[in-house]
Each structure stands twice: as C-alpha cells, then as structure tokens.
Amino acid sequence: MGRVYPRPVSRTKQSAYDRAVAALARRALSVGELRRRLARAGHSREEIDAALRRLAELQLVDDRAVAYNHARSRAASGRKGPVRVRAELAARGIRGADAEGAVASAFDAEGVADAAAQAFARFSRGMPRPLAAPDRARVAARLARAGFPAATVRSLLASVDAGDAADDTGIDELILDGIDDESGEDESGVLRDAED
C-alpha cells in the first residue's frame, strides 16, 4: 500500500500563527514578508499582529538575522554588490539599522572591490582584450545593475585594459552618471534589475 498523507488543513481552519510557523519551517522570513503572506491568506490585521507578537516572544522571527544571512550569502556569491543587496533587503521589508548593519558587515571596501572584480571577469568573459567602447559600456551597465557602487565600477574600469580602451571612459561616465551609489535606484527612482 502507498504512503498515507495527512489531510491538508483548510485555509479557513489554520490560524495565522500556525501558518506563519509553517512558512518559517520552510525558509527564514522577515516580519514584513510574514505580514504580507498572512494578509494574502485572508487573516485579519489583529490575527496577524497577535501571531507576530507571539513569534517575536518565542524568538522565531529576527529581521536582523535574516538581513545578516541574506547579505552574507549575496556577498559570498560575488554576483551582487552592496547597493543591490540593500535594495533586496528593503524589498523583504528590512530597512534602517538592520539592513545597514548587515550590508556593512558583509561588504567591507576590499570585499566590494573583490566581488566587483569577480563580476567583471564573469561579465567580460569571451570579450576581446582590450575591451572596445561598446563592450566596456555593456560591462559597466551590468556591474551597475548588479549593485556595485559607481565609484567602484569607475575604479575597476580604470584599472583594467589601460591600453586603447582607456580613452573611451566617456561612455562609462554616461552610464554611471545616473546611478546613485547608495540607493540602488536610477534617477527616475526605478530599481535596476541585475543580470546574472
């Protein structure tokens, strides 16, 4: 005889607290993410607040730990920069001191430069050296979308391919001028999407 699985609990019978615990068993979530999930499941604001208070009392939710682990994971991958990670944390509902502390602990100045160099190598793989102006522009744009600060991208581009392509920095500047080193948004306020 095959396996016997328990009947799923209907959406109306599962409490907000039980639903939150089940979600946390699958993945670490921020308070903001839990609040959105519970609201989508149809729970009232009072039920959600009570469930989140109980989870906090039992130390089952911790935005600081979620932020730290997210930032560390992204920094270790060498695919995302601090600007992008800060924006991802904000999307998860983590802002302020928790987000800033996590990003600062995951990305020191040397770590940002190393991650940017790894990303540059990946983004420029297969391109002829020295990089032609269109290739430099493409790589600069990808680095910016991946969340590396404009100053880091400028420095990296200045240090590589110092030969013929060094005269084409005007294109790099056009791409990087509209990028704010801190926000992860372009001048229009739209979050940039990173390519992997």
Kindly summarize this structure in a few lines.
The protein has helices at residues 16-26, 31-40, 45-57, 63-77, 82-91, 96-106, 109-123, 133-145, 150-159, 169-177.
Note down, in words, how this protein is organized:
There is one protein chain. The chain is mainly α. It folds into 3 domains: 16-61; 62-107, Orthogonal Bundle (Arc Repressor Mutant, subunit A); 109-183. Helices cover 60% and strands 0% of the residues. It contains 10 helices and no strands. Helix 4 (63-77) packs parallel to helix 6 (96-106). The protein is elongated and about 65 Å long.
N- to C-terminal distance: 46 Å
What is the strand content?
under 5%
Overall geometry comes to: elongated
Helix content: 55-70%
Q: Would you report the number of β strands? A: 0
- Report the mean per-residue pLDDT as an integer: 81
Structural class estimated from helices and strands: mainly alpha
Q: Report the radius of gyration as a whole number of Å.
A: 22 Å
Instruction: Note the total helix count.
Output: 10
Keywords:
196 residues; Arc Repressor Mutant, subunit A; 10 helices; disordered C terminus; elongated; mainly alpha
Give the topology, please.
Layout: H1 16-26, H2 31-40, H3 45-57, H4 63-77, H5 82-91, H6 96-106, H7 109-123, H8 133-145, H9 150-159, H10 169-177
Helix pairs in contact: 1-3, 2-3, 4-5, 4-6, 5-6, 7-8, 8-9, 8-10, 9-10
